[in-house]
Amino acid sequence: MNPKRTRRRFTAEFKAEVALAALTERQPLAELAARYQLSVPQISRWKLHLRQQAAQVFTDAVASTPAPPDVEPLYAAIGRLEMENQLLKKTLPTW
């Protein structure tokens, strides 16, 4: 009976290390695959992904963060609802 093989999961740091090693091209992909116990297509995918996403490293971090929501209308609505609630408590009879 064969033991069930679990799927390996790799950290982002490991993927970056392998992709950078592939980008430097000091070793053939076959040697890198043997060294890291990966397949050549997997290394090629990580290398391609690194090339496509490399520009994001140099983008301005401030531009990528969304602006905080405007809370003033929300506070105004809360105040209005509290006033209406108090008015209704005063005017409506209690059961």
Entry summary:
This protein is mainly α. It has helices spanning 12-24, 29-36, 40-53, 61-64, 72-91. Helix 1 (12-24) crosses helix 3.
General description of the model:
62% of the residues lie in helices and 0% in strands. The longest helix is centred in the C-terminal third of the chain and has 20 residues, at 72-91. It has helices at 12-24, 29-36, 40-53, 61-64, 72-91. It is elongated and about 85 Å long. By secondary structure, the chain is mostly helical.
Strand-residue proportion:
under 5%
Radius of gyration: 29 Å
Order of helices and strands: HHHHH
State the helix count: 5
Query: How far apart are the termini?
Result: 73 Å
Per-chain topology:
Layout: H1 12-24, H2 29-36, H3 40-53, H4 61-64, H5 72-91
Helix pairs in contact: 1-3
Protein name: Transposase
Organism: Hymenobacter terrestris
Pfam family, one: HTH_Tnp_1
Main attributes of the structure:
single chain; about 100 residues; mainly alpha
